[in-house]
Amino acid sequence: MTTVTSPVAGRSIGLAAVPDPVFSGAMVGPGTAVDPVREPSVAVAPVDGIIVSLHPHAFVVVDDEGHGVLTHLGIDTVQFNGEGFELLVSKGDTVRRGDPVVRWDPAQVEAAGKSPVCPVVALEATAESLSDISESGDVAAGALLFSWT
């Protein structure tokens, strides 16, 4: 079983509340989302594994069971072309849960007219393979978001 933890501090809101139909419809995969605190912060690895995809606004970590977890920092933030995001790791790096991955400022994202909500998605998973899904309440970075079997 893979335990997936929050990459950011904030409020868990569930995927259905994400203001983007691709995420809210779970087209990328099942999971949940976090509405982050509005202060400069560091998004951390949600699982132990290898960074297999890395962009300023999003990253994927694959654990030793082959589970890929996508963290997306804000909605439509690809349009910033990396501005306001600082990569703290490289593609191919091995990370431990809680290791810093990207420095960013959710308040800056919101001020630019985009949602800072962060979907955390189990790639190539079924909804039935997830349990203990957090969809409400405050979460700290590193708090349980869901379990994946």
UniProtKB/TrEMBL annotation:
Keywords (A to Z) from UniProt: Kinase, Phosphotransferase system, Sugar transport, Transferase, Transport
Keyword match rRNA processing: no
PTS EIIA type-1 domain location: 20-124
Main location: cytoplasm
GO cellular component, one term: cytoplasm
Domain of life where this protein originates: Bacteria
Subcellular location as annotated: Cytoplasm
Molecular function in Gene Ontology: kinase activity
SUPFAM superfamilies: Duplicated hybrid motif (SSF51261)
GO biological process: phosphoenolpyruvate-dependent sugar phosphotransferase system
Signal peptide as annotated in the record: none
NCBIfam families in UniProt: PTBA
PANTHER family from the UniProt entry: PTS SYSTEM GLUCOSE-SPECIFIC EIIA COMPONENT
Protein name, per record: PTS glucose transporter subunit IIA
